[in-house]
Design brief:
By secondary structure, the chain is of the alpha+beta class. The longest helix is centred in the last third of the chain and has 20 residues.
């Protein structure tokens, strides 16, 4: 995982798992849903990696 300043939440939703990623100010920078908790966790990690590479440019 990265050392970039992002936080995330995973929550059980009606149709699977919802996830959100927040920046230092608390603004949502990405969000989505997945059928499984492990799929949602993988999506979070991937989105944080993308956001981290975009902020380094």
């Amino acid at each position: 995982m990265t050392d970039m300043p992002f936080a995330y939440s995973l929550s059980h939703a009606e149709a699977g798992w919802a996830w959100r990623i927040f920046d230092e100010e608390g603004a949502t920078v990405a969000q989505g849903t997945d059928l499984s908790q492990s799929g949602a966790q993988a999506a979070v990690e991937s989105a944080i990696a993308r956001a981290s590479s975009e902020t380094r440019v």
